[in-house]
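ugh ok so i messed up the first submission bc i forgot one of the chains. this is the corrected input, ALL of the components this time, i swear. 413 residues overall. if the numbers dont match what u have on ur side tell me asap before i send this to the collaborators (the ones from the other lab, u know who)
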Amino acid sequence: MISKLGMLGGSLALFGWCASAAGQAPNLTKEEMADAVRTDDFSIPTPGELMVALNKQGKLDWAAKFRPPIATNYPSRAQLALNLGSLVADGFIAVEAEDSQQVKNLGKDILALAKNLSVPKDILMRGSSITDFAERKQWDQLKEELEATQNEVKESMHDNKDGDLVTLVTAGGWARAVEVISSHIAQNYSEASAKILRQPAIVSYLNKRLDALPDKVRDDPKVKNLRMKMILMEVLVSFPRDQAPSAADVKKLSGYASEIVKDIAKKDQK
Amino acid sequence: MKHPLLALLLAASASLAPVQAVTDAEVDARRIALDLAGAFANDGFKLRDGVWQGTLELGKPKLVQVNLYSGNEYWFSLGATGKVKKVAVSVFDELGKVIDSEPYQEGATAAAGFSPAASGPYYVRIELVEGEAAAFCLVYSYK
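and heres the new structure output, hopefully the right one now
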């Protein structure tokens, strides 16, 4: 893989390569690693990154991973935020499937949910650029646009004193991506593909953020269920670096993720 | 090819500047980092929208955790502004061991590219090697 990266030398020759100090850099201490910065929009990968990794294991029928449309209005802001994240993950699936109409439908739903979270109009205008990119089948640009939309919605949540909901958007997206990927791996098990699922720091980070939510948000039934399942999932994605999870564990992971996604999309009867 | 989108991102960051307290120097640093990352886009690398930015000082390296997937290839691109003469980017695994990455360094820009052997957490360290304190922006691309 590194040799493949070396091919980029051609495109960067103009800038000038040089021997790096990286090779001589001292190892990090435990304290340095503990103090490292962690942020939602840099430390947590997009669903698209997980999907690209899975694509390397063989051709996938991404269109088969679509789910029926979900509601865009829910009684609690926490549930709206969770579903917003899961819809963005659906957007990445539609981009992988290269299905323009599905991307446009999801873009519309994402913005409808965002509107219900009182996201300002100027951010909602992004909906038209998602549609434009989808019509022009600019898939790479669409991935950036989906993430940019999500990041701007999160930013507006901070501005609206809804910063606590940001973690829920991230968690909802992560759960939907893990549901799709782990269910595919469970059905087509190989050690190589199962190793992709190793992501202990992501779940640990999200669980800490969920634990730090205000009581009002943490007591939301959907958030309660999410936290319970995420604790179980943390164990399943924390296997050693040189090992793969068993097919049974991948199936369990898929089951928990699926239960989260179904629960957050469900409108409970009052 | 990505310029319209990059322009949109820059415009968006500029329009959000008062709210996010993003300084003009940070906007410049972002432009520099995105320009560098643009070179990798030609090789099929997709740019993430998220950035990490702030101020870099001599003798005070900064560290950010990222979570990467085995099988993917990554480039971390750093841009800095002001009187920066040299910056560096290095990558470490979850045990804190330095990773042998493809290096790039040119004045106020630097990048590191590698393909992780295992999925999981990694650390990216950025460092001002020579020059005065300045705004920085780190972005990453994957394929």
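quick check: Residues 164-187 of chain A form the longest helix (24 residues). that seems consistent at least. Chain A has a mean pLDDT of 88.
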